[in-house]
Amino acid sequence: MSSTTAPSGLARARKGLAPGGPGGGSRNRKDLNRKDLNRKSKLSAQTSRTFFWLLLPSVILLVLIHGYPLFHAGIQATHDGNLIETGNFVGVENFANVLSSPAFWKAAQFTLWFTIVGVFGSWLVGLGLALLLRTKIPAGGTFKVLLLLPWVVPIVVSSTAWNWLVATPDSLIPSIFRNLGLGTPLFLADPTLAAVTVMIFKVWVSFPFMMMMISAALASVDTTVYEAASMDGASRWQQFTQITLPLIARSTYISWILMTIFCVNDFPTIYLLTGGGPVDATTSLVVLAYRTVFQDFATGPGVAIAFLMTMTLVVVSVILYRQIRKSSVE
Amino acid sequence: MSAVLHAHPESGPALGVATTGKTRRVLSEAGMRGRWWRFALILAITAIVLVPIMVTVILALTPAPNSTTTGLTLENITGVFERTLAATWLQNSLITTLATVVVSVAVAAPAGYVLSRGRSKAVSGYSLLLFVMQSLPIITSVVPLFILFAAMGLVDNLMGLTIIYVGSTMTVATWMMAAYFDSIPISLEEASWIDGCSVFGSFSKVVLRNSLPGVLSTAIFAFLLAWNDYLVAIVFLRSNEIFTLPMGVQSFFQQNLTDWSGVMALAVIMMLPPIIVFAALNKYFSVGGIGGSLAGR
Question: Which of B5, B42, B102 to substitute to test the interface with A, most A CBs within 10 Å?
Answer without folding.
Answer: B42
